[in-house]
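User: Predict the structure for this protein chain, please.
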Amino acid sequence: MAGRQQFDHKDTLFHIVGQLSRRLVAEWREALAPLGLHPAQYTALAEIGAREGLTQAELVLRLDLEQPGVARTLGGLAADGWIERSTLGKGRAQGLYLSDKARSVLPEAHRAVARADRAVLATLGRSEAAHLLDSLGQLAATAPASDTGAERER
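Assistant: Here is the predicted structure, written as structure tokens:
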């Protein structure tokens, strides 16, 4: 086997991104913890805040997540007073709205996440950071989709 390079799983995108993901989620959790939020809750609140009145089904599609997980997150947010639901006309569809509690905390949550993001990217130059974000965004947009709830509902 002379001259043949052995496969090293640690050199794969899957391994590197998996390792990085765990570390970044830990930073994200730490940034949001003083505000009483978890990353999934923050993501849902940020999306609802940007488009108040959207339905749970619309949120599932916007977040590209599975419906049961989004439903659990929304249930917890409603129970803890972060969101309110209101029936939209006839039928069962309910619009999602931020509560006063969420409106007061969300701006600080945005700042906390932005600070954590800047701290992580600070090890790179400005153009390297922009290129990394652009490349990762491109990969995320073109990578084969898993069979999530959002995919099944489309």
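The chain has one domain: 29-153.
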